[in-house]
Write a structure and sequence with these properties.
Structural class: alpha/beta
CATH superfamily of the largest domain: Alkaline Phosphatase, subunit A
CATH topology of the largest domain: Alkaline Phosphatase, subunit A
Largest sheet: 8 strands, mixed
Strand content: 15-25%
Order of helices and strands: HHEHEEHHEEHEHEEHEHEEEHHEEEEH
CATH class of the largest domain: Alpha Beta
Length: 474
């Protein structure tokens, strides 16, 4: 365990460590270079649509992710980490604002523009003001440009929720018809024909790190467009995975089961998607190797995450599905854990003790954590700084958290309107249009197969009161 004196004093914990030994001391309230140099660099790796079980360290037998696995083994690996929403825009809104993605009873959706955040609640401006160089690469989906939120640099970021193609030319559809998607800006100038998008973005991050001002720390976020559709991977990766999948024995596991208004995929048998996952892993490895080559790995805090569960469900309209989140239930779009549970690791070499951490955390906690780390400020939002959890001086196993999904897509992903609350081990889902409840003990039943709502009516009543009280605030 590591101990940081000034943080422990904040949380009322005891320590024998002298405050002058704390790596956080120089992060307080100064923009001078001498103060900034000793602050940690920050690298956030955020993968789109990556399910909790889409990496081999979490049990995938098909997708090979050695670089992500190694990162997980060197990190605080959260086993109860959640997205705030099972779709892209509201999940990313929560991450960037540190709060629940609900405005006036509704959630932000495609076309939403993040703006008008006051400075006293703007995490990026606070971190920038603490002497950090800030940069954003890749999927934004919250407006025209991350610079509007305060990032100094942005590359290939804008309205687009996914690329038209993963191969250059990126803004031209490969196949029949024309795409109605927004093009991704910047890409033509930084790539050549045939380049793969994830490789291009990773190289841009690498060049940014190499060319940084070494007198200032940086916070860079790489938001992969991978592994969101369209499903396109390098031919060699597809061939290798097709061979492995064809040789794999799925036993009597059905290809699909019924869920919601459609189907849930039960096999990881999409060779193209497998190639996309493994390409993302390869690029994670490139950046980790670069940090080591630059001599800054030791003083770089690395966060790895996904924005929600994998695409495993369709609705009344059948579609090509990417993966399965099994043994978790359902996937993208749903408030079952398959839709909201995410891989989430935090590494700071020699500062954070690698371990599995059971505390309940959410994406809305990321920037409050980084802001307190870099500035000492605690901006008042619904998200919480995870520093005492990372420091292993608190656990949040009994935390109460909420979800509200008002933008259901029964045609595309099979989900219907619902809200949910988790408190400790218990999770209650309420399909509020139907006034139907399901209750699960997630610790004992992570696959959410044993509905306890009839057997535990008092627990249903207690959790539904808390859920309704929360919903009355918006």
């Amino acid at each position: 365990m590591f101990a940081f004196a000034f943080l422990l004093s904040i949380f009322g914990c005891k320590t024998n460590q002298n405050s002058s030994d704390s790596p956080f001391d120089s992060a307080q309230g100064s923009n001078s270079n001498s103060s900034s140099i000793s602050k940690p660099n920050i690298l956030i790796l955020h993968v789109d649509d990556l399910g909790y079980h889409d990496i081999s360290v979490h049990g995938s037998k098909i997708y090979q992710t050695p670089n992500i696995d190694k990162l997980a083994s060197e990190s605080v690996r959260f086993t109860n980490a959640y997205a705030n929403y099972p779709r892209c825009v509201p999940s990313r809104y929560a991450m960037m604002t540190g709060g629940y993605p609900v405005q006036n009873g509704d959630v932000p959706d495609d076309g939403f523009v993040i703006n008008n955040i006051p400075d006293n609640k703007n995490f990026i401006k606070a971190i920038d003001g603490a002497g950090y160089q800030t940069a954003y690469f890749g999927k934004w989906h919250l407006g025209e440009d991350p610079k509007e939120l305060g990032f100094d640099t942005s590359v290939a970021s804008g309205h687009a929720g996914s690329p038209i193609s993963y191969f250059n030319p990126f803004n031209e559809k490969k196949g029949k018809g024309k795409s109605k998607k927004d093009p991704i800006k910047d890409l033509d100038a930084i790539s050549k024909e045939g380049d793969y998008l994830t490789d291009v973005l990773t190289e841009q991050v690498a060049q940014y790190i190499k060319n940084r001002d070494a007198n200032q720390p940086f916070m860079a976020m790489l938001a992969f467009y991978n592994v969101h559709q369209p499903f396109e991977a390098k031919e060699a990766d597809v061939k290798r995975n097709r061979k492995e999948i064809n040789a794999f024995d799925f036993g009597d596991t059905p290809e699909y089961i019924h869920e919601g208004t459609g189907r849930t995929k039960m096999r990881q048998d999409n060779a193209t998607y497998a190639g996309m996952v493994e390409n993302a892993d390869e690029n994670v490895g490139k950046l980790l190797a670069l940090l080591e080559a630059e001599g800054i790995l030791e003083n770089t805090l690395i966060i790895f995450s996904s924005d929600h569960g994998g695409l495993s469900n369709d609705g009344t309209k059948q579609r090509n599905l990417a993966t399965t989140n099994y043994p978790l239930r359902a996937g993208k779009g749903h408030l079952y854990d398959g839709g909201i549970k995410i891989p989430f690791f935090v590494k700071w070499q020699d500062k954070l003790q690698p371990r599995d951490e059971t505390s309940l955390v959410m994406l809305m906690d990321v920037l409050p954590t980084l802001t307190e780390l870099t500035t000492g400020q605690n901006l008042k939002t619904e998200g919480k700084s995870m520093l005492p959890v990372l420091n292993n001086t608190q656990d949040w196993n009994d935390r109460t958290v909420f979800w509200h999904s008002s933008k259901a897509r029964p045609v595309n992903t099979g989900d219907t309107k619902s809200s949910a609350v988790r408190e400790g081990d218990f999770k209650l889902i309420h399909w509020y249009k139907e006034n139907r409840f399901e209750l699960y003990n997630i610790a004992q039943d992570p696959g959410e197969q044993n509905d306890l709502s009839k057997a535990m009516p008092e627990k249903v009543s207690a959790l539904s009161r808390k859920l309704n009280t929360w919903k009355s605030t918006f």
